[in-house]
Amino acid sequence: MGTPYHLQSPRTIVTKIINMKQQPPALPSPPPTAPSKIILQPRHRTSPAMWCAAIVCFAFSILVIVAGVVILIVFLAVKPRAPSFEAANASLNSVYVDSPAYFNGDMTIVANISNPNQKIDVVFRSATVELFFRDRPMAAQELPPFMQRRGQSRVLNMHMVSSRVLLPPEVAVELVNQVRSNRVVYTIRGAFKVEARFWSGHYTYWMHAICELELTAPPSGVLVARRCRKN
Question: Is 147 helix (H, G, I), strand (E, B) or coil?
Fold first, then answer.
């Protein structure tokens, strides 16, 4: 208990009264809050269209997996290989550079094309062989369609004739210098549309081959070196 007013000094009593007037009034206690309610959202049912789309996607995925497994099994069983193309022989009959830089030439190429597959027949739907000198086209020949059974080879005789092919001056000078040095380098490029047949199916693809030929000078130019590759 505090000191009675009659025992306190007048100054102390006045100070307490002033302090009591300056204190803010007590705030009323807040009313008790009601317990919070949990609001549950209604569940949406999956529509039949969504179920159908999911089933279609699942079935498509299964088909893709099955098709991949079948293709892999067929590939391992058949072991497909592309046919091989190479220049077996060649002869350079004539090379003539006219003024200002027109090229005339005659070359015979004997090429060997073979089907290395033991379970696949191939059909050459189209075949084009081109002759180049320093990436300049000199002559071209198209071959008729033909078929090769599994394991078979075929010899192709091609006569490449160039008539008044305009060459840049620097290319014409290089050709003349090669003829004088008794070493003439040509490039042949082959493009073949191949249809591979096996069992009851088939597929088509393009095959490209490049051969670099080094021959002696005409009129009896013979093949002294060659290098062929598939591209």
Answer: strand
- The SS3 call for residue 24 is coil
Give me the helices (H) in 135-192, please. 169-180
Q: For residue 37, give Cα distances in angstroms to 31, 32, 40, 76, 181.
A: 18, 15, 10, 66, 102
Per-residue pLDDT of the chain (231 residues; tens, 9 = 90+): 555 545 566 666 666 666 666 555 555 565 665 555 556 566 667 778 888 888 888 888 888 888 888 767 766 666 778 899 999 999 999 998 887 788 999 999 999 999 999 889 999 999 999 999 999 999 999 999 999 998 899 999 999 999 999 999 999 999 999 999 999 999 999 999 999 988 777 889 999 999 999 999 999 899 999 999 887
Look up residue 204 and give its two tokens: 């088509």
Token pair in block for residue 89: 């022989």
Query: Is 49 exposed, middle or buried (CB count within 10 Å of its CB: 0-12, 13-18, 19+)?
Result: exposed
Q: Quick one: tokens of 23?
A: 């204190």
> Domain limits of the chain?
84-230
| Domain with residues 84-230, CATH architecture | Sandwich (2.60)
Comparing C-alpha atoms, which of 145, 163, 142 is closest to residue 154? 145
